[in-house]
Specification:
The chain is built from 3 helices and no strands. By secondary structure, it is mainly α.
């Protein structure tokens, strides 16, 4: 999974799958990261309309991304 999730993402996924306590989060695939840099540091079209992972993490933690 390292090719898809990167080293950190793959390791976090593995730790989660074996039952280690890992804080809630989400991983952006290496494909999205590659497109981000190809597109002058803009996320690919449709990404924000896609999954609700950030909102799910915010709800779970009772906090918002970017909120000091």
């Amino acid at each position: 999974m390292k090719n898809l999730l990167g080293g950190k993402g793959a390791n976090l996924a593995e730790m989660t799958s074996i039952g280690l306590p890992v804080p809630p989060g989400f991983t952006i695939s290496t494909e999205v990261c590659t497109e981000f840099y190809k597109n002058n540091r803009n996320y690919p079209a449709g990404l924000k309309e896609g999954g609700g992972e950030p909102a799910q993490v915010e709800e779970l933690m009772g906090k918002s991304f970017g909120d000091p």
